């Protein structure tokens, strides 16, 4: 993984699925499209409105290339993993290690996928998101391509639901997706109830011995916006890559809980572990430090994967456990 790991998130998938008589083709609709109702057609295609347009894709595709870990997690979770034939293997999280097998073609990195190999392989569908979204136009020339990027702005969970509902339509797994999302909703409600009386929280990320803080509109902001953890009153610059934070800032923020992502561990880089970085008197003087309320989140889930069905459920579990 590169140090610039996440490209700026685009708009959340508006996705609702509409059947069309058109054959598989490239993206056509503009960013303002709201999508139309769904129904099947004799050609076996489905129209998906996503972060970068509307694309006709084959229903239940047999040969899929995946360039986003969240989408890979979702496709696996809903029981459609057999359709995956190629993927970007760099940075593959531990819980998706089955895709390291030789039978899955390696497309390189999410930032720079092997376009030549994809053109030769001729997949039925290419799925991008987040880090690979910038390559959408190039990939859409090779095969039908959908962008599963979910924005951290606005209602994050609604965006996640739309992304996964669309994937369920594509793979014929609507019932499975509906059940998984209902289970996540139940966990979210229970976590919000715990958060209501748990005090304030501050989200941190360590990387190369340095610390960044993240607010409600950041990539990790669902801790506040969806799960109900009250942010501290400390001033913060909202930025995709976080705001540089000193230990004095953390002490002044006076958080009741700290939620910490170790970026180096997440991407396999050597560096000082987050626990070592935060092992100092100023952090220990906060209510979070003094009360042993520091939760070290799984970086592969929070930093690398994000929006997958099973992954999202595990993320909610981690926050609930920290409360």
From TrEMBL:
SUPFAM superfamilies: Helical backbone' metal receptor. Keywords: Signal, Transport. Residues 1-29 form the signal peptide. It comes from the Bacteria. The keyword Transcription does not apply. Residues 63-323 form the Fe/B12 periplasmic-binding domain. Its main location: other. It holds the Pfam family Peripla_BP_2. It is found in: Cell envelope. Belongs to the bacterial solute-binding protein 8 family. This is ABC transporter substrate-binding protein. It comes from Arsenicicoccus bolidensis.
């Amino acid at each position: 993984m590169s140090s610039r790991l996440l490209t700026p998130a685009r708009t959340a998938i508006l996705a609702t699925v509409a059947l069309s008589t058109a054959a598989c083709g490239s993206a056509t609709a503009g960013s303002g499209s709201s999508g139309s109702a769904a129904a099947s057609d004799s050609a076996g295609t489905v129209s998906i409105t996503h972060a970068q347009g509307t694309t006709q894709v084959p229903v239940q595709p047999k040969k899929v290339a995946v360039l986003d870990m969240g989408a890979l997690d979702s496709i696996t979770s809903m029981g459609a993993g057999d359709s995956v034939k190629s993927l970007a293997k760099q940075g593959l999280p531990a819980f998706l290690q089955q895709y390291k097998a030789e039978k899955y073609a390696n497309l390189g990195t999410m930032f720079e996928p092997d376009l030549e190999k994809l053109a030769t392989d001729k997949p039925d569908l290419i799925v991008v998101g987040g880090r690979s979204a910038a390559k959408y136009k190039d990939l859409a020339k090779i095969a039908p391509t959908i962008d599963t990027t979910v924005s951290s702005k606005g209602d994050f969970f609604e965006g996640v639901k739309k992304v996964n509902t669309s994937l369920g339509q594509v793979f014929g797994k609507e019932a499975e997706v509906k059940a998984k999302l209902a289970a996540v909703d139940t966990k979210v409600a229970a976590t919000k109830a715990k958060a209501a009386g748990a005090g304030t929280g501050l989200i941190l990320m360590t990387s190369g011995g340095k610390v960044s803080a993240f607010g409600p509109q950041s990539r990790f902001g669902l801790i506040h916006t969806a799960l109900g953890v009250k942010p501290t009153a400390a001033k913060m610059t909202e930025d995709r890559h976080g705001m540089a934070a000193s230990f004095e800032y953390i002490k002044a923020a006076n958080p009741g809980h700290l939620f910490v992502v170790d970026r180096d561990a997440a991407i396999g880089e050597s560096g000082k572990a987050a626990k070592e970085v935060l092992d100092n008197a100023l952090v220990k003087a906060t209510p979070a430090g003094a009360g042993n309320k520091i939760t070290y989140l799984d970086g592969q889930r929070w930093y690398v994967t994000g929006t997958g069905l099973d992954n999202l459920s595990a993320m909610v579990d981690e926050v609930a456990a920290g409360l």
